[in-house]
């Protein structure tokens, strides 16, 4: 394009930079920025701030701060836009929050008036590091200065209040938002639901789900996962399964972690047959554990098998023992090594049933030989 003498405008270069930012390649955005001069396109303040913002958004903080110093050295004056990005960079770490506030307080002296974005960034940073009291004070100051909080600012404060277990105050903020015609988003509702579920108030979390849907807000995987976890923790398995069904109807596919919560829930109330059924559903659905859920996956397999075998009713129902053996087979196929207690439970269960002694011997030969060294 350079050889063909095409006229490439600043906006075209910035579109390319933003595209690299969206696919998490900030250094390529910087490279494109540096090629602007080769095309006789002189970067303006807008270009510098755009690239600075991309670096901050992608957590390239050291490079971002060097880039900002370069901006100042070449004479680009501070502006509300550039200082907002700088404050956002400093709010990423608890150790630099004080510097963010110092710049915030100095903004009027530089001819820059903090706006809603400035306050929102600081409130988000304070909430992230557990400084809820300071965040609430800044929220009040923001309103006295005539800066209207956005849905993002409200959501940040609601999330912070939920993290500190101030659930009723968080709910009050939601009501305040709605009264001011600020529409809560999925993150707002999910943060509140998470707080209620962790606080043992899953019924209120369910009410929020209905409110959310009535407002035409579409729950996402995080929303459903939060609810299912909270309901399982309180032993409300029926409600958890209803949420799982709604999630599937919406076209969202449960992952290994979500199945683990439900299976754990059934194991906690000693309903091992139901747990095994969900384990089957998970395997048949082709849902495999990832690195993070692998150890949980193994533990759940062991829990279900041992539960099936040690449950008193299990020994009265031949089907349960065979189901336990089949699950052990699936464990081996999936590459999971059952714990010693699992082998003992399955083999012991069959051994106590004299009619299936031959099956037990086959099970011992087939499975135990794979993992237990023979006596010498």
TrEMBL record:
<feature type="repeat" description="PPR">
    <location>
        <begin position="44"/>
        <end position="78"/>
    </location>
</feature>
<dbReference type="InterPro" id="IPR011990">
    <property type="entry name" value="TPR-like_helical_dom_sf"/>
</dbReference>
<feature type="repeat" description="PPR">
    <location>
        <begin position="150"/>
        <end position="184"/>
    </location>
</feature>
<keyword id="KW-0677">Repeat</keyword>
<feature type="repeat" description="PPR">
    <location>
        <begin position="115"/>
        <end position="149"/>
    </location>
</feature>
<feature type="repeat" description="PPR">
    <location>
        <begin position="220"/>
        <end position="254"/>
    </location>
</feature>
<dbReference type="InterPro" id="IPR002885">
    <property type="entry name" value="PPR_rpt"/>
</dbReference>
<dbReference type="Pfam" id="PF01535">
    <property type="entry name" value="PPR"/>
</dbReference>
<comment type="similarity">
    <text>Belongs to the PPR family. P subfamily.</text>
</comment>
<protein>
    <recommendedName>
        <fullName>Pentacotripeptide-repeat region of PRORP domain-containing protein</fullName>
    </recommendedName>
</protein>
<dbReference type="Pfam" id="PF13041">
    <property type="entry name" value="PPR_2"/>
</dbReference>
<feature type="repeat" description="PPR">
    <location>
        <begin position="255"/>
        <end position="289"/>
    </location>
</feature>
<feature type="repeat" description="PPR">
    <location>
        <begin position="185"/>
        <end position="219"/>
    </location>
</feature>
<feature type="repeat" description="PPR">
    <location>
        <begin position="79"/>
        <end position="114"/>
    </location>
</feature>
<dbReference type="Pfam" id="PF12854">
    <property type="entry name" value="PPR_1"/>
</dbReference>
